[in-house]
């Protein structure tokens, strides 16, 4: 029997001169203010034993989605692209149908964490367009902080068929040890059986200089207990993770905590098969 694929379900590419990364301030410097392209990631994947990836938008523009789809078409290891559209726009449906024709397009993500309106996801137009995603079976990535989760729950109640995934375990403030409020709200989200969770972005929410795998342990234990191994996916969040550690360190931190708690079948699910199924990837 062939080994189950290992899939990194969450990483980024960007090219600074494109100029549409709203979060990229001119003076921010290393490690993020430079290009990160497929040739930079490929050797890291080989060393880590990762077979395929899902690249996720990092700019709130249709141009960046087109850029990622072009890169994916040229990059065999990229199995899927999670792009961006304005979900509060009247022409959303027609644009979604055009994207859906692209072979490696697998989902959409608004950058909820960066929007002025914490309740953006429950605007009437956004809810109507979430229903279009649900009808078409297209995945929806939820980039949310703990403060957004009550609004996310309302959206999930309004669109019960939505195929959704919480990015970065909803970004609890691991560095400060904040837990209780996040824990309650992420449990509410996990109560929807169609919602998955990405085990990604955690080292970036920890203390960038002093974090240890044990700092992530209570947060991981909580989401594993809530979602179970069939609704969890590994994601590196590279290159954002470089603020706190290397690609290998992000993966090793997860493995140090998780692998001893899971059966071989559950590990196969978390590290690849769930992403394969959720995003309907063609490997």
The strand line-up of the biggest sheet is 1-2-3-4-5-6-7-8
State the low-pLDDT regions, or none. none
Q: Classify the fold: give the CATH topology.
A: TIM Barrel
How is the biggest beta sheet arranged? 8 strands, parallel
- SSE pattern: EHEHEHEHEHEHEHHEHH
Name of the CATH superfamily: Metal-dependent hydrolases
Strand content: 5-15%
Walkthrough of the structure:
- It contains ten helices and eight strands.
- It is α/β, with parallel strands linked by helices and 283 residues long.
- It has one domain: Alpha-Beta Barrel (TIM Barrel).
- Strands 1-2-3-4-5-6-7-8 form an eight-stranded parallel β-sheet.
- α4 links the parallel β4 and β5.
- α6 runs parallel beside α8 and α8 crosses α9.
- The radius of gyration is 18 Å and the shape is globular.
- It starts with 6 loop residues before the first strand and ends in a 5-residue tail after the last helix.
- The model has no long low-confidence stretch (mean pLDDT 96).
Give a short overview.
This protein has 283 residues and is of the alpha/beta class. The protein has helices at 38-48, 62-74, 92-100, 124-136, 149-158, 180-190, 202-205, 213-227, 247-258, 264-278; strands spanning 7-11, 52-56, 78-83, 105-108, 139-142, 164-166, 195-199, 232-234.
Q: Which properties best describe this structure?
A:
283 residues, alpha/beta, TIM Barrel, 8-stranded parallel sheet, 10 helices, 8 strands, hydrolase activity, hydrolase, Amidohydro-rel, Amidohydrolase, Metal_Hydrolase
